[in-house]
């Protein structure tokens, strides 16, 4: 199947020798390619759901979460493999109902290894914005880590808590 249906979209360019090929045209193509590459660079592709994620500077936006509740608390479970300690995880609140979880993965040296030859972990930061179903108290929460599951426990804000009755 010929996508051009017998028509050469490049005209006579393929039949031209070096003397006939216009150098100013090549300069225009070169400039256009440089402009394209400056706009559609690695950062651009990394922002499109990690399409162009460079393994050396990986920033993943999504890790699985679950949100659970009790009568007074909201539980956010983040499944982030490699997290072993609470100090590796930070929560930042953008509002009472929107938060960001950031986690820094760390290297773990095998018992008999003597030197690290390569790593991608030193530059891996995982983060995710989460919209909570209820407002929570962002100033006092607890974090637990167990086998790669990070549990953040928040106290729910009761919307009627400080409402005066008439």
Task: Set out the fold topology.
Elements (H helix, E strand, L loop, with lengths): L22 H17 L2 H6 L11 E2 L4 E5 L3 E7 L9 E5 L4 E7 L20 E7 L4 E11 L2 E8 L10
Parallel strand pairs: 1-6
Antiparallel strand pairs: 2-3, 3-8, 4-5, 5-6, 7-8
Q: What this model shows, in words?
A:
By secondary structure, this protein is of the alpha+beta class. It folds into two domains: 13-53, no CATH class; 57-111 and 119-156, Immunoglobulin-like (Sandwich), CATH 2.60.40.790. 14% of the residues lie in helices and 31% in strands. It contains two helices and eight strands. The protein has helices at residues 23-39, 42-47, and strands at residues 59-60, 65-69, 73-79, 89-93, 98-104, 125-131, 136-146, 149-156. A four-stranded mixed β-sheet has the order 1-6-5-4, with no helix packed on it. The radius of gyration is 27 Å and the shape is elongated. Mean pLDDT is 78; it is low at 52-58.
């Amino acid at each position: 199947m010929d996508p051009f249906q017998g028509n050469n979209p490049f005209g006579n360019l393929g039949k031209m020798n070096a003397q006939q090929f216009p150098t100013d045209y090549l300069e225009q193509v070169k400039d256009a390619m440089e402009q394209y590459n400056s706009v559609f660079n690695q950062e651009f592709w990394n922002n499109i759901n990690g399409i162009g994620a460079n393994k050396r500077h990986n920033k993943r936006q999504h890790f699985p979460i679950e949100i659970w509740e009790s009568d007074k608390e909201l539980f956010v479970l983040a499944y982030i493999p490699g997290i072993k300690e609470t100090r590796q995880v930070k929560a930042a609140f953008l509002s009472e109902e929107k938060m960001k979880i950031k986690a820094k993965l760390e290297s773990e040296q095998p018992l008999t290894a003597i030197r690290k030859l390569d790593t991608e972990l030193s530059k891996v930061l995982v983060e995710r914005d989460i919209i909570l179903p209820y407002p929570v108290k962002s100033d006092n929460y607890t974090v637990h880590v167990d086998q790669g599951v990070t549990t953040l426990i928040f106290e729910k804000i009761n919307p009627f808590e400080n409402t005066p009755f008439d």
